[in-house]
Amino acid sequence: MRRNKGAALIMVLVAVAIMIYAASMITITANRVFFTTKNAVLYDKAKWYVEGIERIIIKYMRDDFKKTKGKVYLGMNWAQENQVIPLDEAMISGGVTDEMACININSLDTEVNLDGQSAQDLRNLDYRLRNAKYPALVFTELLKIIGADEAQAEMITASAIDWLDTDSVTYSSVGAEDQFYMGNHNPYLVNQGNFYDKSELRMVRGMTDVIYRRLEPLICALPNKNFKVSVNTLHRKQSPILQALFLNQITLEEAANIIKTRPQYGWDSQAGFFRTNGLESAAAQMTGLRRRIQQAISVDSQYFVADVKVEFDDEEYAFRTRFYRETDTKVVVYQRLIGELHE
Length: 343
Prior knowledge:
Pantoate--beta-alanine Ligase, Chain: A,domain 2; globular; 5-stranded antiparallel β-sheet; Ribonucleotide Reductase Protein R1, domain 1; 2 domains; alpha/beta; two-stranded parallel sheet
């Protein structure tokens, strides 16, 4: 009799355990469905808000570009930083930046436009400009300015060029093609094409976390191979770009001062830029440098990026939108990313 009572008690406990487990699974499933549904609803709302913000940005850009033709500058309406828009159920914050105020890493295997260069010009070139393409020299110089030693800077530059080109021959003895990366613990292949995003640069030979963190605000990966830097929208923290463009013929302090004393409405032309603070004489220190700088700088821009964050009570969503300016009156969105903000 006692044995039967014990067996019955065990059966009751097993039944209770099964019911508790079933109830907990139902609760977990219900919570998962609830939070998934809630997240989907909030994400859709955030996306709608961002699409509205994109239209406002495009309107500001078109208005600015029609009023001021041929140049951009930081005082324009679209360029205001740290904008905040409070709503009843959300907070929207972010800003728009000129994505040509950087070194385009997709241009490292190309050269600036040097049409009309005579044989005499080529013979008189400084040996550095004669032996390497200007964008690659600038990038190597930029790496050294931010703390890489010369060997590391040359390795990263050569490996980035190997990442871009379509052959399987290393750019130099310190470059890297497929055979190098296939020997890694986690093997992979070179892209043999443009960097889709600047973060891919972390994959090339010689790059380190420290160097990339310093380099990240100074570079971009535009969907072209044009080596153009928008000098009217450079910030003082980006002065290494200006120093690198001059291949170290100016100091970092001089570069920062040039940006600090830039005209309120930016330079109107490349010639106006060179008339600033002795830049003409600095460029003349290296034969052929001025022409390359003149081809590389721009007072205008075609590419812009908006980083927008939408915050609800307990959720937040980050978006990155890229704009292309086809004409003064036509600005289009060409890329949208989710969960992307400046590092």
